[in-house]
């Protein structure tokens, strides 16, 4: 059997030498004196890891996530770096020894002693070198990996292929590297280098499994696993027959591989497999899939367990996935179906969770993805400016029932199709399509992010003047790679993309659409203007949690435009858009705390406006993918979970918006309706209670109306004229409550006839009760007045505290309980100070200087 020796210990990172450009503590491109003068010129290195994390550990780099330290770290990405270690003495009796490097970031020369093994130019591929004749048996052998700055390589390639349009100033499209290393409108510019995936020695004889790609299908209730194998042989193994054993759960098959054959397919038929479903639709059974390569033919007595040469194992799931893009009376669809069940995708966009991705761990993937599932998300889009993530990511998605939409790694730029890029693009695509094939959660390959749209709308076409820009990848190379490597999954050319050049790439009536004009230039009520077939990106910004800001920034005082806040706002005119977005609904905030609260409210309101509208139009609209779930550092952004992992009010709002059952008030041509959105597998029926309510809680009119929404369907309840608040009223609202099964609190929808700044909110009043049990505090708020979007900011109680609810609107006399964890000093006064509501914000802004007292603000 193949032996594996990890090469994880003894690594050193060589610092830039004394001849490198210096600065006064560096300058933007210079190496700081502290680094140039550091001891022996090397520091310990962690592999897998990166230069930034090693410098941080050595105390030679300030945390780039704090204040404006990012700027002072810019020199790291422009320097060249060398990693080195000693391989252990050779002690194997195997015929062959390979050095395997699963991932190098990015431009590197690998040497064993004085011998050059190879050069790499792609972060998204693995590399293997036969070192049998170079690897001694007696003494250790020096292994070095010398990295050239990604900037140097990008500028070299740009000089070869010529300038091309880019949404940012950094040259990320000229190198096959995580694009957002070079910064984005939510991320810092921290251009990494390093050995970012494991290194090992593989010792083997006769033959090994060079590639294993299981293609899983289901037809007529029977499962089939067709495993495509690539086999590498030594010289002595070329003339020998081999045996492949395939086990899928309890199903076992064996087949003989003829002598000299290096590509082979073995198939297992699995009767009546349990189907894998996205969560909410069924269970997620996973089957062990194991391939063993043995020496000798199937009739050879040597073909026993002792003759095993290599083994591969993953977990697979049985399901079908199709993408319906058929034309209809509304345009052309974009509807995913799993096991024949059409799905409204409740999605989020995923960016790398850390701009230094080697800090990602299996536990951190699980925490973040569990947050997604707990918010009702069932689809995660892995965005094209990031990574093909670790198998740990997809393993968790398999287990949690999260569908994965995987972009190929092209985003917001024109990509040259000439060498040296083209061959790298094809190699990385083939490797990653094959690597991710076992994962049941992966349901769609997408060619790029926004590049087809950009060609048409962002003035690329005249600037390119006929030069290549990536279309040949998205419409030619990549669909061919998917069809040849894994034809069990659909491919889509881009997001947004209408399906062909017959339609505008971002035509909402066809395929996928991105809705960014709303955030960039309009009020969020603009989401109501159309019904796209599938909304793959839309979002609204808000700052991170207060405790996250206080950890990351030393600004005193904090202000929307204080230096640290501005440095951690990367979007073009981001604060201006936040301000204009608030102005549509609220008076100018009276202070920073009010601004912080209201921007978070406005983010949640914006996303709610879009999702409620689009979900109410299922099946015409078949999915919403919010930009974005997560952040890669502390920043004002579109994320629902901030860079420290804290959940914004938007996160809790998603729990309501993405619940199986959603109640919402929507406009239709004939008037207002209560849309009953039922994505559960059972009918949702009962009695809806509609009330016209005065601001003081008095019920002015009421109706009890039956409703019934079939499974996976939407029903509508027309609002009777007598229930409608008077047009322009600043003191009435409509409430709709609908019974939920299982004794849960009714679902509720609210409709206000005017915007918050025009509504006559009363001075808020509430009563508090606290109870503590086993370290968990339950805060019960009883409303003495209407309370609009009441929010307990748990991190203001303690940076480690969390709560289970976000924005809550209560009518007079109603109560709500909020569960707080991680707070060991429960005090009513502290809770009162950490509570905010729209009433207070609007009144404080409108009447500056009004006294604010506990429970009456």
TrEMBL record:
Keyword Hydrolase: yes
GO molecular function, a single term: beta-mannosidase activity
GO biological process: carbohydrate metabolic process; glycoprotein catabolic process
Top EC class, one word: hydrolase
Taxonomic superkingdom: Bacteria
Kinase keyword on record: no
Beta-mannosidase-like galactose-binding domain boundaries: 37-197
EC number(s) reported in the record: 3.2.1.25
Catalytic activity: Hydrolysis of terminal, non-reducing beta-D-mannose residues in beta-D-mannosides
InterPro entries: Beta-gal/glucu_dom_sf (IPR036156), Beta-mannosidase-like_N2 (IPR054593), Beta-mannosidase_GH2 (IPR050887), Galactose-bd-like_sf (IPR008979), GH (IPR017853), Ig-like_fold (IPR013783), Ig-like_GH2 (IPR006102)
SUPFAM superfamilies for this protein: (Trans)glycosidases, beta-Galactosidase/glucuronidase domain, Galactose-binding domain-like
Gene3D superfamilies: Galactose-binding domain-like (2.60.120.260), Glycosidases (3.20.20.80), Immunoglobulins (2.60.40.10)
Alphabetically ordered keywords of this record: Glycosidase, Hydrolase
PANTHER family, per database record: BETA-MANNOSIDASE
Family: Belongs to the glycosyl hydrolase 2 family.
Entry protein name: beta-mannosidase
